[in-house]
Amino acid sequence: VLVPSPDYPLWTACVNLAGGTAVHYVCDEESEWYPDIDDMRSKITDRTVAIVLINPNNPTGALYPKEVLQQIVDLAREHQLMIFSDEIYDRLVMDGLQHVSIASMAPDLFCVTFSGLSKSHMIAGYRIGWMVLSGNKSIAKDYIEGINMLTNMRICSNVPAQSIVQTALGGHQSVNDYIVPGGRLYEQREYIYNALNSIPGVTAVKPKAAFYIFPKLDVKKFNITDDEQFALDLLHDKRILITRGGGFNWHEPDHFRIVYLPRIEVLRDATEKLTDFLSYYRQ
Ligand SMILES: Cc1ncc(COP(=O)(O)O)c(C=O)c1O
């Protein structure tokens, strides 16, 4: 199963735990963190069964345009691959951009689209999510049988929380006020993007969606060879917790992830401390 690198790591874990083999395709920082289609193509073999997409993306905050999705659909069609599309951040899109669900562009292919309320309605922990199966279900009979078995074994998701789904999806979408100028998520994104890029040795692509940013460290400047050590040193020195790039199946020690949900005052305090830390840190 082709899984992005960097990924939301449960995807790699799920594939491997289910007895599959997660093969990572690269998302390219030089191209707004879009999937590298040539890399994806080069990793398809006669044993490849599916492509996983995370769009909008955790940890990069990327949003994939139609042209990129079309190339993925073309590849999947050519090799008759299933598409698993994790779209949990589909309502958290900024800059007037539109999220496009890949299943809408591939009515002939078997697609599983995942979403839920935990991000758009800020109720992580209530365990309200769903999957939509579409397209050519005849190639996925055993998969669907497995899902039915699992859901029957688990009975159902949290019932009191289910009662809010209709109101949440149908009512006023308060998140819309967060993602425009003046809104919390938008302003926090602007702040963290500018603050990180003004630190010598740090660069970051501007996220378009979700609430993460995945900055790059100049590993030569800081002599970084181990991103876990970097995270631990920052935590010990400054009491700031970041997630290292390796936690997202990113194979170089040169990235880390910030969740920019805290208010700007908190982000300011953290970036000032990070700036100070990086002024002396050498691994
Ligand atoms: C890409 C992605 N998919 C799924 C999830 C999990 O969402 P839930 O809270 O519904 O389990 C997350 C949570 O961080 C995520 O980042």
Description:
The protein has 283 residues and is an alpha/beta fold. It has 2 domains: 169 residues, Type I PLP-dependent aspartate aminotransferase-like (Major domain) (Aspartate Aminotransferase, domain 2); 104 residues, Aspartate Aminotransferase, domain 1, CATH 3.90.1150.10. It contains 10 helices and 12 strands. A 4-stranded mixed beta sheet has the order 4-5-6-7, with no helix packed on it. Strands 1-2-3 form a 3-stranded mixed beta sheet. A 3-stranded antiparallel beta sheet has the order 9-12-11. Helix 7 runs parallel beside helix 10. The structure holds pyridoxal-5'-phosphate (PLP). The site of pyridoxal-5'-phosphate (PLP) has 9 residues, from loops. The site of pyridoxal-5'-phosphate has 9 residues, from loops.
Task: Write a short abstract of this structure.
By secondary structure, the protein is α/β, with parallel strands linked by helices. It has helices spanning 10-17, 37-42, 66-79, 141-154, 159-162, 165-170, 184-197, 219-222, 227-238, 264-280, and strands at 2-5, 23-28, 34-35, 50-54, 82-86, 111-116, 129-134, 202-203, 212-213, 216-217, 243-244, 256-259.
